[in-house]
Design goal:
The protein folds into two domains: about 1-105 and about 265-370, Isopropylmalate Dehydrogenase, CATH 3.40.718.10; about 120-260, Isopropylmalate Dehydrogenase, CATH 3.40.718.10. The longest helix has 24 residues, at about 345-370. The chain has helices spanning about 15-35, 50-55, 60-65, 90-100, 125-130, 165-180, 195-210, 225-230, 245-260, 295-305, 310-325, 345-370, and strands spanning about 5-15, 40-45, 70-75, 105-110, 130-140, 150, 160, 185-190, 215-220, 240, 265-270, 275-280. It has a ten-stranded mixed β-sheet, with helices on both faces. Strands 6-7 form a two-stranded antiparallel ribbon. By secondary structure, the chain is α/β, with parallel strands linked by helices. The two termini are about 30 Å apart. The protein contains twelve helices and twelve strands. Helix 1 packs across helix 10. The structure holds nicotinamide-adenine-dinucleotide. Nicotinamide-adenine-dinucleotide binds near residues 76, 77 and 261.
């Protein structure tokens, strides 16, 4: 049953975070108004700003607000002024603590090569044209969390453990298959089953889960081959399902294909509260100048509409509005690709997308009124 009101905790964070989240909130308000959903936005401090104000990158009030909300919308954290701080006071520590507290085990990272931006990709246009990949990365297991881990007492050895329980694989595989059902119905499970026992186990469990989704095609690819296919034939992929470390690397590789860090959204789902954030950082080099690209943050808001609000149609409208604005030729500085064209600022880009969202709804209402 769809909820009529959603409580969103907004964490603008540092650098360009406040500039881009402002535009994401604008898009949510507009889409919500038309889709019959109202949002209650509550802003809280995180990261460097929270360190300055409260002496900690994740104040208790921020964490409590996040845990009591329907979703968290984050900008970005960090900046050189906090790099020398002790670990407990680093902005990134606050973000890691928040992710752990929210408990999301599935990180969703879509990477789409929009035709209007094909010139921004480091790959040839004919290779990337039409690429639309969703990386579903397991986030709470594998090599990053497996025990034992550490260094030998005589400092001659060190080790980490890639370890997965069946239930951890089952739940992430189910997320991938369900998402594939809303897309082109293909899951590529990525592992290293020719070498690693944990990958052979991963493969077995994924095959078992696949039986519940006979309408979704499953294939298995080794991680090294996947890295190669992503740059030689990215259109072969729909949903990539993979464990934590492989997903970390492959999702960055997929993102690089699109050639535009500022465009890419992400969602972390499956825990107590879902979190949505653009994949870029706080970009201190361009902060406060109204030149950051807000589209990754706005696309993260679209993911919120899809995965938390249960409004896939509203989500698609926001994504289509982003496409429409780019197709009209509007670009922030990062998307200009060295061409001499007039660039627009963060706020203007946000306003254009908001207008395009309302245009789409108005056209739809006019069509139904005829
Ligand atoms: P970054 O993503 O902030 O910036 C990399 C480059 O991309 C910069 O040149 C920046 O100007 C540009 N860029 C990034 N986002 C952009 C946007 N929306 N529009 C236009 N250009 C954009 O990565 P970095 O420079 O390695 O890190 C800067 C700070 O951000 C560091 O303190 C780092 O720890 C932090 N960081 C935070 C997150 C997060 O909050 N999730 C993620 C990555 C990095």
């Amino acid at each position: 049953m769809m909820k009529k009101q959603l409580k969103i905790t907004v964490l603008p964070g540092d650098g360009i975070g406040p500039e881009v989240t402002r535009e994401a909130v604008r898009a949510l308000r507009i889409a919500g108004e038309y889709a019959g959903l109202s949002f209650e936005f509550q802003e809280h401090a995180i990261g460097g700003r929270a360190v300055e104000q409260f002496g900690t990158p994740l104040p208790r009030a921020t964490l409590d607000a996040c845990l009591a909300s329907d979703a968290v919308l984050l900008g970005a954290v960090g900046g050189p002024q906090w790099d020398a701080r002790p670990r407990a006071q680093k902005p990134e520590t606050g973000l890691l603590q928040l992710r752990a507290a929210l408990g999301g085990f599935a990180n969703l990272r879509p990477a789409v090569c929009l035709p209007a931006l094909a010139e921004c990709s480091p790959l040839r246009k004919e290779i990337v044209a039409g690429a639309d990949v969703m990386v579903v990365r397991e986030l709470l297991g594998g090599l990053y969390f497996g025990e034992p881990r550490g260094f030998s007492s005589d400092s001659t050895e060190s080790w980490n453990t890639m370890r997965y329980r069946a239930d951890e694989i089952e739940r992430i595989a189910a997320v991938a298959f369900q998402i594939a059902r809303t897309r082109r119905r293909k899951v590529t499970s990525v592992d290293k089953a020719n070498v690693l026992e944990v990958s052979q186990f991963w493969r077995q469990i994924v095959q078992r889960v696949a039986r519940d989704y006979p309408d979704v095609k499953l294939d298995h690819v080794y991680v090294d081959a996947c890295a190669m296919h992503l740059v030689t034939n990215p259109t072969r992929f729909d949903v990539i399902l993979t464990e934590n470390l492989f997903g970390d690397v492959l999702s960055d590789e997929a993102a690089a294909l699109t050639g535009s860090l500022g465009m890419l959204p992400s969602a972390t789902v499956g825990g107590q509260v879902n979190m949505y954030e653009p994949i870029h950082g706080s970009a201190p080099d361009i902060a406060g100048r109204d030149i950051a690209n807000p589209l990754g943050a706005i696309a993260s808001a679209a993911m919120l509409l899809r995965h938390t609000a249960g409004l896939p149609d509203a989500a698609a409208k926001v994504e289509n509005a982003i496409r429409a604005v780019l197709e009209e030729g509007h670009r922030t500085a990062d998307l200009a690709a060295g061409r001499s064209r007039r660039c627009i600022g963060t706020r203007e880009m946000g306003e254009l997308v908001a207008n395009a969202i309302s245009d789409t709804y108005e056209r739809q209402f006019a069509y139904h009124a005829v």
